[in-house]
Amino acid sequence: MQVRAYCVCDDPEYFYEFTQGLLDGILAGVDSRDIVDIQNAKGLGYAINTAEELAFVKQIAQSTGVVLDPVYSGKAAYGMMKDMAENPAKWEGRKVLFIHTGGLLGLYDKTEQMSSLVGNWRRMDIHESVPRKEGTGKMF
Fold it and tell me: Does the keyword Electron transport apply (predicted)?
């Protein structure tokens, strides 16, 4: 088994060294490059998206119901899917698990950039939507 990682900040070398430090700390006796394949998925830069990346985030949400943020998990998933398309032999016959690490708060900074893709954004009014024993009402 090999872990494939897609970094969206810094570069692969930084993460190889970081991972090696963790492995050395537990006396694993393993080289990080032997167990993890780290690729750059930063694209244009940290928190800077292409129209294609944003469209990918929208398409995943519409087709699966899984919401990816465009700063972290969206870029990583986009990098993985791009890698799969460009290197199908590397992925053939493999079971794939994408670990969604969160980052949904990154969506708030991208509302303007994504509005043309998703239409109107609306924040939920939590004060009026939290179920209570006596019905829906104010939280506080």
Answer: no
Closest residue by Cα to residue 78 from 107, 42, 36: 42
Model's pTM, two decimal places? 0.73
User: What residues are paired with 48 via a beta bridge?
Assistant: 45
Instruction: Tell how far CA 65 is from the center of its chain.
Output: 14
On whether the CB atoms of residues 62 and 31 are closer than 8 A, the answer is no
Residue 136 Cα distances to 70, 121, 123, 133, angstroms = 33, 23, 18, 8
Measure the CA–CA gap between 114 and 68, rounded to whole angstroms. Answer: 13
CB atoms inside a 10 Å sphere around CB 56: 20
Q: Which amino acid is at 127?
A: H
Q: Where are the alpha helices (DSSP H) in 1-140?
A: 12-25, 32-35, 51-64, 73-86, 88-91, 111-118, 126-129
Matching residue, tokens 């050395």: 24
Distance of alpha carbon 111 from alpha carbon 45, whole angstroms: 18
